[in-house]
What does this fold into?
Amino acid sequence: MCRRSGPVLPLSPWSPLPDMRSRPRQERRLTGGWSYGLGTGCILFAAGVVTIFALSTQVSPDPWYHPRYAIPLLGMVLGNTMTGVSLGLHTLTSTLTRERAAVEARLMLGADRHEALLPVTRTAMKAAMMPIINSMAATGLVALPGMMTGQILAGADPAEAVKYQILVMFLIAGGTSIGATGVVLAGGRRLTDARHRLRLDRLQAGKAA
It folds into this structure.
């Protein structure tokens, strides 16, 4: 029997690491604290919400924050959410830089900042969700996920292993969608202002070729 203790936050001391790992991949990074804070906040919020939901409603260990279940679930969701957030933010900033003239033309024709950024936002969301959608489409047909394979090799009932894998895939998809939506919308809001102007001056200069 496990000993009860306070809620476990296994990744708290390393909470900046997800964004530190994804930040160097951005060609045009946000200036100031936004460069770290936006990605880190969206990743941790999305992964935390999805993991707590799974622990409290589906897995239901006693206590609900048991590290045996919390750490593996949080790790899987966190890693995949980081990928989606990184892709979404990268696509948003690079597309806005490339399509600056088109976005400013829509703003001059009377569109507000949300309408002007809508095509860019859609492109960023598609890029962020593409890896997990492709993974879900191939699971069980083209590839066997590691968690399910490990359970089967360890002697678990294949039907139960498949159920857990389906749960994990949906959790990853949920975490990725929440994190990507948050970072794309917040990033778009940061790169515009209340006067509906495009503010690419809030991006760091691109690296020299």
